[in-house]
Specification:
Number of helices of chain B: 19
CATH superfamily of the largest domain in chain A: Crotonobetainyl-coa:carnitine coa-transferase, domain 1
Radius of gyration of chain B: 25 Å
Oligomer: heterodimer
Structural class of chain B: alpha/beta
Strand content of chain A: 5-15%
Structural class of chain A: alpha/beta
Radius of gyration of chain A: 25 Å
CATH topology of the largest domain in chain B: Rossmann fold
Helix content of chain B: 25-40%
Number of domains of chain A: 2
Strand order of the largest sheet of chain A: 3-2-1-4-5-6
């Protein structure tokens, strides 16, 4: 099956997580993505764990293997004059350039948007950075947790009597990569309609701050400042609670309320008159919470999940760990995990398509590239360099 | 005036809450015409709570915070889809549109006769996007879901939380946003393809799958190494120390990461703890990772007297990644975001009682075709006459008949507003504080009103 983005040429100057997730989305849905890596060491994500077989080998980084499916790898030191000229030739043939360097890096290498658009006036360039290309935080150092802090999500994450939390791993980076991919297609669509290219500035901080429900608006609407989760509210927590064999997120929704929950849980202790109103439950929050905890602990999570979802207004969530997800019947039915074979890391089942498309496919056509795997294809077969020239550039460390 | 990237794209949205409305509002910001189909009998839950100044009188449904956040720049048409006239009008609208976007359970859409195959009969090249908790096929496809549940199911929650505690999710339906971000990408991919082939298609978004796709590390670790991950608080798997430490004032915190020995020395100097630099317990990343518990205590003790903002500036000045954990108000007034014009002031309808207010804008800034919030979220049925008369050419008389027959309307036919006072929210510990002079503060910073 063809891909929705077949025929789109992407010059991928990204590294680590945010940029590569953007170009992975594009590549997995059909775009041809050429990833430019630093000669010798390549994308720093190649050194990010965990590794296949716990072997810290540059072709065995699991995040790298996941993030770079369907891409080609060409090595290039574009800080050299020759390298810069080659990169400009590559950019001249690209529909889209994606990069996630610090805002000062590409201008310093004389490869800014204005310099690339001089060789390719209709090019779309998407730049992803920690805090955007302008503003007082532009050159700040950041990691995922710093993005969580400065984008406002961390303050409302965790228990209100403990330190603010963050999600595991690199959510801020993945979120920015997704937004950047959406932005890239909006810009390419505009180009398809009008011929006009442009530069798009994606700030990781703003990607998170765009997705915080009534957080700044709680203040502008009522003067309130939202907080982390309280320990005792006398109500169902919209967060994981322990069952006999794991965790469930109990949600009563769309008009369903306390009575439906009490009925569903079949708990006499919860039927207590004192708990029949919201005010009463709040007054007796510690007791209500204790009974709720004890009640949930009597059930198996999967039993609660499947039974709740047959009751109107109760929509429970099932906390699943990695092992359970690989066995999950829904993911199994939808063929979510896909086996990918890699010459050095070996075979493994990777997370697959985020969504389905009926007329065009999602597929892993090729594993994450070995460092410089496509140098001959890119420089000799496509750009017309001779093998001698490529060897010379390789010896000089440009490729 | 600069062009709009999505000029000429028309989206009919039958969305609720976030997963679809968030996606289409971003498209509206970029110039798409988005027509929201609403039901007077069963309004979007976001019209029913969170009113400006907690005032549930009058037409409260046009003053709700989350509805305004998710639906700015759109048009609103109310249609009673249980009446044949309502359903036919919806199909008429779809017939002149490019995209139909919805996030109901598959059963609801099927019962209305709004499956993709039904839509193709009136608009052969329609792009339909259906966003559901677990996707359109499979044993869980009939289950309803909201973001808290899909986040649980995605695998992400199992590797998130305090190290000694249960899995954790933030105080918002996070997964809905992840789904919405992927949905914009998906719709645009389908529109790009349609421009080439002339064919539309059905996009089947599983909200859970989109979140799993962004949290592959633990899954890949299991697939290759058989290891099942667990929550590890704020720690990084390699860089140490990383954490969130208490600062001076009420509930103030700083988050920081040390990625090298140089950064470690810079942190020690800034905190005036030079004696830690030579300490063999902390001499390199591996040693610091092994002493993390002890380090967290020591760092907390040292940050306790610092103002979080000042410490952020001091650490950034020496190259250490650090940021104060901004609360909602801090985010709104953040100097960097405001210098970049991240919040855009939106005027609300005259007589609505809501003054012009700033809203978070978009995750991107386009050079040639900047986005903008065209107007506030529509009042219920605000564009009934516009859309039915202007777009479909219905006569004034026919529109009036539809109104009399209750096919369209501008007021809810059921449901009660939900008000939670700030006093209650404080008592429950859901908000940390509220400030009486929020109107003056907002106006002083953002103008308007």
């Amino acid at each position: 099956m063809s891909g929705a983005l077949d025929g789109i040429e992407v010059l991928d100057l990204t590294h680590h997580v945010a940029g590569p997730y953007c170009t992975k989305l594009l590549a997995d849905f059909g775009a041809r993505v050429t990833k430019v890596e630093r000669p010798g060491s390549g994308d720093p994500a190649r050194r990010m764990g965990p590794f296949a077989g716990d072997d810290p080998h540059s072709e065995k980084s699991l995040p790298f293997l996941y993030l770079n499916t369907n891409k080609r790898s060409a090595t290039l030191d574009f800080k050299t004059d020759t390298g810069r000229a080659l990169l400009k030739r590559m950019a001249a043939g690209a529909d889209l350039v994606v990069e996630n360097f610090r805002p000062r890096s590409l201008p310093a290498a004389r490869l800014s948007y204005s310099e690339l658009s001089a060789v390719n006036p209709s090019v779309v360039m998407v730049s992803i950075s920690n805090f955007g290309q302008t503003g007082p935080y532009r050159d700040f150092e950041a990691t995922d947790i710093v993005e969580y802090a400065l984008s406002g999500i961390q303050y409302i994450f965790g228990d209100n009597d403990r330190e603010p939390l963050k999600h595991g791993f690199d959510q801020a980076q993945y979120k920015a990569g997704t937004d950047a991919a959406a932005a890239a297609l909006i810009a390419l669509y505009h180009r398809a309609m009008t011929g006009e290219g442009q530069w798009v500035d994606v700030s990781i901080q703003e990607c998170i701050a765009t997705g915080l429900r009534d957080t700044t608006s709680a203040f502008t609407y009522t003067g309130a400042v939202k907080w982390r989760r309280p320990n005792e509210t006398g109500d169902l927590p919209r967060s994981p609670v322990a069952t006999k064999d794991g965790y469930i997120v109990p949600i009563a929704f769309g008009g369903a309320g306390w009575n439906e929950t009490v009925e569903f849980l079949g708990s006499d202790a919860l039927r207590d008159e004192r708990f029949s109103t919201a005010e009463g439950r709040m007054e007796n929050a510690a007791e209500v919470d204790r009974i709720l905890r004890e009640t949930f602990a009597q059930y198996e999570k999967s039993d609660l999940f499947h039974r709740a979802n047959r009751v109107r207004g109760l929509i429970y969530g099932l906390v699943q760990d990695s092992a359970e997800l690989y066995e999950n019947p829904q993911y199994e039915h939808r063929g979510y995990f896909v086996e990918v074979d890699h010459p050095i890391a070996g075979k493994g089942r990777y997370p697959g398509a985020p969504f389905g498309m009926s007329d065009t496919g999602w597929s892993v056509r090729s594993h994450a590239p070995l460092l410089g795997q496509h140098n001959v294809e890119v420089y000799v077969e496509e750009m017309g360099l001779s093998m001698d020239e490529l060897r010379r550039l390789t010896a000089a460390g440009v490729v | 005036m600069a062009g709009r990237a999505l000029a000429g794209v028309r989206v009919v949205e039958m969305g609720q809450l976030i997963a679809i409305p968030f996606a289409t509002k971003l498209m509206a910001d970029m110039g798409a015409e988005v027509i929201r189909i609403e039901s007077c009998a069963r309004m979007d839950g976001y019209r029913m709570a969170g009113f400006y100044k907690q005032d549930a009188s009058g037409d409260y449904w046009n003053r709700a915070v989350n509805f305004h956040e998710q639906n700015r720049g759109k048009r609103s048409v109310t249609l009673d889809l249980t009446k044949s006239d309502g359903l036919e009008t919806l199909l008429d609208l779809i017939a002149v549109s490019d995209v139909f976007a919805e996030n109901f359970t598959p059963r609801v859409i099927r019962n209305f006769g709004l499956d993709y195959e039904d839509l193709r009969k009136v608009k052969p090249d329609i792009v339909m996007v259906s966003s559901t908790g677990y996707g359109h096929s499979g044993p869980w496809s009939g289950f309803g879901a909201i973001g808290y549940g899909t986040e649980a199911a995605s695998g992400l929650a199992s590797v998130t939380g305090y190290a000694d505690g249960p899995p954790a999710i933030p105080e918002l339906p996070y997964a809905d946003y992840t789904a919405g971000e992927h949905t914009v990408f998906a719709i645009m991919a389908a529109l790009m393809r349609r421009a080439v082939t002339g064919r539309g298609q059905l996009i089947d978004v599983s909200q859970t799958q989109t979140l799993t796709a962004t949290a592959p590390d633990a899954l890949m670790d299991y697939a290759f190494n058989g290891r099942v991950g667990a929550p590890s608080g704020n720690r990084h798997r390699v860089w140490a120390p990383q954490g969130t430490y208490r600062c001076a004032g009420e509930d103030r915190w700083i988050s920081l990461t040390v990625r090298s020995d140089d950064e470690w020395a810079a942190l020690c100097e800034t905190l005036d703890r030079r004696e830690w630099i030579g300490d063999p317990r902390f001499e390199d990343g591996l040693a610091r990772l092994g002493s993390h518990d002890r380090l967290d205590e020591m760092i907390s003790e040292a940050t306790r007297a610092w103002d979080a903002g000042k410490l952020q500036a001091a650490l950034q000045a020496v190259g250490v990644a650090a940021g104060a954990a901004l609360d909602g108000k801090g985010l709104l007034f953040d100097e960097h975001l405001n210098e970049r014009g991240f919040f855009e002031v939106v005027e609300h309808a005259e007589g609505s009682g809501v003054p012009p207010l700033p809203y978070a804008s978009r995750p991107w800034k386009f050079g040639a075709t900047p986005g903008r919030i065209d107007h506030a979220a529509p009042s219920l049925g605000e564009h009934n006459e516009d859309a039915l008369g202007g777009l479909l050419g219905f006569s004034t008389e026919r529109v009036r008949e539809m109104e009399e027959a209750g096919v369209i309307g501008t007021a809810p036919a059921g449901g009660l507003p939900r008000v939670e006072s700030n006093d209650t929210l404080m008592a429950q510990g859901r908000i940390v504080r509220w400030e009486d002079d929020f109107e003056e503060q907002t106006r002083a910073r953002f103008g308007g009103g």
